UniProtKB/TrEMBL annotation:
Gene3D superfamilies: 3.30.1490.50, 3.30.1490.80, ATP-grasp fold, B domain, Glutathione synthase, substrate-binding domain superfamily, eukaryotic, Glutathione Synthetase, Chain A, domain 3. This is Glutathione synthetase. Keywords: ATP-binding, Glutathione biosynthesis, Ligase, Magnesium, Metal-binding, Nucleotide-binding. Substrate binds at residues 128, 150-153, 203-205, 209, 258-261, 459, 470-471. It comes from Fragilariopsis cylindrus CCMP1102. Residues 194-297 form the Glutathione synthase substrate-binding domain. GO terms for molecular function: ATP binding; glutathione binding; glutathione synthase activity; magnesium ion binding. It catalyses: gamma-L-glutamyl-L-cysteine + glycine + ATP = glutathione + ADP + phosphate + H(+).
Amino acid sequence: MSEIASVLDTDALAVEANSFASANGIQVERKKTEESEDNLFLGAPMSLLPNAYPEQEFKKACDVAPAFNELVERVSQDAEFLQQTLGGGVSTMDPFTAKILKLYHQVYVDDSTANAPAKSADRLGILRSDYMLHSDDDSYQIKQVELNTIASSFAGLSCKIANMHRYLSSRYETEIEEFLQTNRKRNDNDNPPIVLFVVQDGETNTVDQRLLEFALWETHKIPVVRRSLTRLNSELSVDETTGALKLLKQEVAVVYFRAGYAPTDYGDGEDGIEWNARLTLEASRATKCPCLGYHLAGTKKVQQELARPGVLERFFPEKDETNKVAAMRTCFAGLYSCGDDATPEDLEAIRDVLDGGEAKYVLKPQREGGGYNFYGEELAQKLRSNIERTGDSLELSEDLAEFILMQRLFPPEQNAVLMRGGKVEGTGDSISELGSFGTLVVGSDGKVVHNRYAGFLLRTKFSGVDEGGVASGFATLSSPYLC
Ligand code: ADP
Ligand code: MG
Ligand code: MG
């Protein structure tokens, strides 16, 4: 019998959890099939109980959020840095990143008067910095897995999971304790400005998105319209004099992207209607969340470049009274380039993999959404087949330029009960990844109007599973039990 099942009646608790989840909308949408176009909602993947989490490290993730917000803002404004980091080998090997970079230049760098509305638009960031606990000596510390600047999901559902765990653990206190010990305003006219959610066709994580929509309506009476990039193309226009973005007759004040981060969101290809829609949105005066610069600042290649000595300092040249540079740096794990900018240290890490040390690393391409990383033998193979080694010297094939090599993190294992589709999927050892949300509003003059920590997400998966991601089917939603 598993550790938890010996203490708790997990089946009975799963029934409670499932009912709470249904009553409170902790749900995802079922993929529509050819047989059925019915709208059906299922229980979201979730962890039955919270996971123990060291309070001090949790607090660090909250406290450092505004610093990462500011970093993204500054990186987004540094065209030279973005070009240097993403222009060379990365762009050659990754047409998607190349296209985003090209649009960024077209809209923000080129000196055309058509670009005035975009340049004078405010910027909005909803970011999520993800961490795993890792111990190099005797204490666990948070290390950044990645920084998400586009479509950072689960702010909506995450609070509800914490509520469910609060409910279960107060109602079933005695039983669970034992387990836990072990482990803006509306304009007065007929066409008020709207917020446009850019979404994927066939999206299943709609409840998480709708929670933001309902909150906008309830708190500010701001209507949300949801559209795919494909459909938008024919419905958008930009007023030539003011730069106002119109969806049919309504002005769009804010464009919130929950799509557009994957090549598959641009079905029609390189010069297709989806890319055209993205350009129209970006070139308007509407606030984009994220703007192209923020999108680029969240790439894995930029993450790797920012970890190099002196690069954070370049973005924070002023007196650093709150020590934010040091606070961010302590969150960085080992990050190494596999491109022609690889330093002797980077090459040493690559050599370590070739010599059999692959278990200590993860190889990542410039992609979002989970499921693309290389681990273990597959990682070693990928490097071996793209590197020529003569003695101590390494010749890296250009195919590797879009990849970064990262130190693999080993978070502490805990016993967990994971649920999927309303059923207990299994019980066993699990590891968790903490997401720390940050929100940021910056005027076109670069003045930071709002910069805050904005909540957390804890995702839990079985220890044997390499990849993460809830929507991609690897992880479940959970919450931290601070200890
Ligand atoms: P994506 O943008 O696709 O989410 P991530 O960098 O978050 O890319 O990688 C996906 C998943 O792979 C993470 O959620 C995590 O589970 C796992 N992972 C990524 N980097 C590491 C690492 N350095 N150590 C251990 N696991 C990792
Ligand atoms: Mg990501
Ligand atoms: Mg991720």
